[in-house]
Structure formats: structure tokens, C-alpha cells
């Protein structure tokens, strides 16, 4: 249920961002601030999955990649 709710919320945000008429500059900056942490987390997870070697210790992981298989 939680994942479905988050998916709906994210789709609503994307719907606003993809408005064919464009969005106001202030709204664009707000959306950038919302999407930046999501982009960072996705990049860390993507880099973790691309690793050729196993992490040596927990110090090689970040908060976003600590429990990724």
C-alpha cells in the first residue's frame, strides 16, 4: 500500500513537471529541490550495483546502499 501511494505521489509530481505549457520558475526550483535527493539516492544505488568487487566493510556503503543486495 505504501509503495502504491508513493508511486501515485511521484506520478503527480512528474505530471506537474511535464506540463506542456511549462511551469513557473519558482515551481521549477521547488521541483529541483524535491527531485535532487531522489536522483542522488538512485545514482548511489546504481553505482553500488555496478561494483565489480564486494564492499570490504560497512564503511564502503552509504545510507542508501547499506541494505541493497
Q: Strand count, sense and closure of the main sheet? A: none
Give the N-to-C terminal Cα separation: 23 Å
How many E strands?
Answer: 0
How many individual helices? 2
Poorly predicted residue ranges = none
Q: Structural class of the helix and strand makeup?
A: mainly alpha
The radius of gyration computed from the alpha-carbon positions, rounded to a whole number of angstroms, is 16 Å
Mean pLDDT: 86
Write down the overall geometry.
elongated
The helix-strand sequence is HH
Please report which band the strand proportion falls in: under 5%, 5-15%, 15-25%, 25-35%, 35-45% or over 45%.
Answer: under 5%
Measured as a percent range, the helix fraction is: 55-70%
Can you walk me through this structure?
This protein is mainly alpha-helical and 69 residues long. It contains 2 helices and no strands. The mean pLDDT is 86.
Question: Which key features would you list for this structure?
Answer:
single chain, 69 residues, mainly alpha, 2 helices, 61% helix, elongated
SSE diagram, text form:
Layout: H1 2-17, H2 25-50
Summarize the structure.
The chain has 69 residues and is mainly α. 61% of the residues lie in helices and 0% in strands.
